Amino acid sequence: MSQTSEHTLKIAHQAFEQFTHGLATGEWQGFLDMLTEDFTFWFPMGKFHGLNEGKDRANEFFQYVSASFKGGLSLTLDRFTSNETTVVFEFRDQGILLEQPYKNRVAVSFDVRGDKICSYREYFGSDGKSY
């Protein structure tokens, strides 16, 4: 593994730990601190569907996620893969979404630039009630 790949993996794992903490607790500052100023993210549905730009928009999104999952989400990491600039994490999550049981399989992709995350993409596809 090249030094660049190792660095990318290290930064992405640090960000994923902060991401997991944010989903569980609603405390997003640690994750937001790891984002570049020109951060972009892509989300597959709802109010934030498509490409979103900026840390303020990211903060709005993650606060919305926490409000939707008032008790937080717990994650089980299944696997990850990486290249020189990108790490993809595949996980299962569960919680209560708007007072209904929720379970899903999700993949998130973090693009790393320097010591920060410059881009995030999320993909999911189950019915929200099963693994």
* Integer tally of domains: 1
Biggest sheet, spatial arrangement of strands: 2-1-6-5-4-3
Total of helices: 3
* CATH architectural designation: Roll
Q: Quick check: average pLDDT?
A: 93
What's the CATH topology label? Nuclear Transport Factor 2, Chain: A
Unreliably modeled segments: none
Structural class: alpha+beta
Give the CATH level 1 class. Answer: Alpha Beta
The radius of gyration over CA amounts to 14 Å
| Beta strands, count | 6
Largest sheet: 6 strands, mixed
Q: List SSEs in N-to-C order.
A: HHEEHEEEE
Provide a quick synopsis of the model.
The protein has 131 residues and is α+β, with helices and mostly antiparallel strands. 31% of the residues lie in helices and 44% in strands.
Account of the 3D structure:
- The protein has 131 residues and is α+β, with helices and mostly antiparallel strands.
- The chain has a single domain, classed as Roll (Nuclear Transport Factor 2, Chain: A).
- It has 3 helices and 6 strands, in the order H-H-E-E-H-E-E-E-E.
- The chain has helices spanning 3-25, 29-32, 55-68, and strands at 35-43, 50-53, 73-82, 86-97, 100-113, 116-124.
- It has a 6-stranded mixed sheet, with helices on one face.
- A hairpin with a 3-residue loop joins strand 3 and strand 4 (86-97).
- It is globular.
- The model has no long low-confidence stretch (mean pLDDT 93).
